[in-house]
Give the backbone structure.
Amino acid sequence: MGGRLVTVDWGPLVISQLEFYWDNHFRPRLDGLTDDEYLWEPVAGCWTVRRGDDGRHRADGPWPEPGAPPPVTTIAWRLAHITVNFHTRVGTFFDDTVPNDAGMFDPRHVPADLPATAGAALAFLDDAYRRWHAAIAALDADGLARPLGPRGEYFAADPMAALIVHVNRETMHHGGEIGVLRDLYRAGLAGVGRNTGG
């Protein structure tokens, strides 16, 4: 089959993928999220966002070793994961106020106190998305192709475009999970699970 090759501007295409998902699928699915739903644990032993002895809220973790079964996580945990992905990547690659030695997996990027309520979590999410989107939308072709460098840690040789595609994938993956949890909660299964938020 013959045909004329089409020139593709990959950067805007990849960024518009995230925009479309955010505007048409993910963010509208979060409207009306309540605190009970945010912290609902559909099974015992869920990972969630919990208040520690110091009064600060943190996400349960760390993630199990490869091959171990992953935990069931709450909407709170999944929203924190998506938001912290945006937040830490902005802090690592676009925010000059972060220490130069802080790579993208450095825990200093993670807020010391994560949101304890649905409203606060959505505000944090919206702000982190806005900052991440503004930063990546401003990149030209050279910026998208530039290696992550030392702050990318063991992904140092990967281009910024690879990180953007990864963040897109993580957002869509966990966003879909949040949608399913909302469906189950709405279907009346909330009484089966537990709400142990604090």
